[in-house]
Structure formats: C-alpha cells, structure tokens
Design brief:
9 helices; Peptide Methionine Sulfoxide Reductase, Chain A; six-stranded mixed β-sheet; two-stranded antiparallel ribbon; about 230 residues; alpha+beta; globular
C-alpha cells in the first residue's frame, strides 16, 4: 500500500501538519474536443478511466450531470489479482480505475474526456498522481468501442498540438478487457470521508474545480454506488 494513503488512513487527525499544502493536481482550462462521439447515440454508455487514486476520480464523476454511475475498481490485469492489497504492489498490470456509465443525451463522451483531462487528474504525469506513485496510478482510458478510441486519440493529439499542458500527455488508450469493482469500503469514499486528510487535500479540490470550470455540468448531490445497491 502506498505510504501516503496508508498514513491518510491511519493518521487522519494530523491533517495539514501531515500533508502540508494541498496536493491535488491543478486544474487546467482546456478546449472541448473538436471530434466527439456520435450525438445520435442513445442508451447508457460506458468508459473506464484511470487517473491516480480512484477515490478522487470517482468523486469527480459522481458530481457530473449525466453520469448514471461511477464505480471504483481495477482494469488492466487479471481477475485473481484484482484485490487492493495486491494491486498496491504495482506488479499486477492493473490501474486503479473508475467505470463511468453515462447518458450521452445529457453529457457527451467528449465532455467526459474534457473533465477527465481538465480536473480529474494530470494526464502528463507518468505512473503517478500527486503523492501516489506506481503503475497502478497511471493515466489510462479503457475504451468500450472503436469510436471511443478514435475520439480519445484525436483529443490527445488536439491538446498536445495546442500546448495546453507544459508536458506531453502520457495517457494510455486501450480497449477494455475487463473491469473489476473494488472492495465495498472504497466506494463513495470521497463522500463518506470528506474530512479525512487525503480526501480533503487531494480530492475535494478536484470536485470544487469541476464546479468552477464546468458549472453547467456540476450537480451538488453525487450519484452514489450505495444508493444503487440499496
């Protein structure tokens, strides 16, 4: 388990004395994708996004209008290694990921990607995000159809050519082989533990950035995994 997150779980009362200044990756104002998925698509669609600790990525998309569900989990490795303690070793091939189910009539795939690149994580960091490091924290998009892959590739090319980030985007794009939901205690973590230091310093700023930069897509009440299973 990563030291920073272990400390966050065991020493929540240390607060600012432990983490110091806010560790969240800064939001970046970026243009919308020139190429988006078909607007005529209907029905709920799915994409799996990896961008560091899944607590924050899940929290961001749970507050995005049009997202039907956002579930923390693992992608990139095998079923038998999709266990938090094993994935944390960084040798399973898994990335901490979030399965985002969305209604394209309310939010397009392109907007999902714009939020992902802008406020959910820093796509220029290789195998790390904020205080967390390792391949399990890599930036990756696991697509569920060829159009998703084409749109993501075109958008990364667009953003790199526009120079909106100081460094090139390192996000991997791969077809989704499988997604394995994480343990129950990881679900809805940002909502359930807003005062925990790791969440307060790394993840709540991301949700505030969603509200600030994407106000028309922000909803105050998140869509929670717990609500869907009750």
């Amino acid at each position: 388990m990563d030291f920073a997150r272990t400390s966050a779980l065991l020493l929540p009362l240390l607060g600012a004395l432990w983490l110091g200044p806010a560790q969240a990756e800064p939001a970046t104002v970026i243009p919308a994708p020139v190429v988006d998925a078909s607007a005529s698509a209907d029905g709920v669609q799915t994409v799996v996004l990896a961008g560091g600790c899944f607590w924050g990525v899940q929290g961001v998309f749970q507050h995005a209008k049009g997202v039907v569900q956002a579930v923390s989990g693992y992608s990139g490795g095998s079923k038998d290694t999709a266990v938090y303690e094993t994935v944390s070793g960084g040798r399973t091939g898994h990335a901490e990921s979030v399965e985002v189910k969305f209604d394209p009539r309310q939010i397009s795939y392109g907007k999902i990607l714009q939020i992902y690149f802008s406020v959910a994580h820093d796509p220029t960091e290789l195998n790390r995000q904020g205080p967390d490091s390792g391949t399990q924290y890599r930036s990756a998009i696991f697509t569920t159809n060829p159009e998703q892959q084409q749109v993501a590739e075109a958008y990364i090319d667009q953003l790199n050519k526009a120079g909106v980030f100081k460094s090139p985007i390192v996000t991997q794009i791969k077809p989704l082989a499988a997604f394995y939901p994480a343990e129950a205690y990881h679900q809805d973590y940002a909502t359930l533990h807003p005062t925990q230091p790791y969440i307060a310093y790394n993840d709540l700023p991301k949700i505030e950035n969603l509200k600030r930069l994407f106000g028309d897509l922000y909803r105050d009440k998140p869509v929670l995994v717990a609500a869907a299973t009750n």
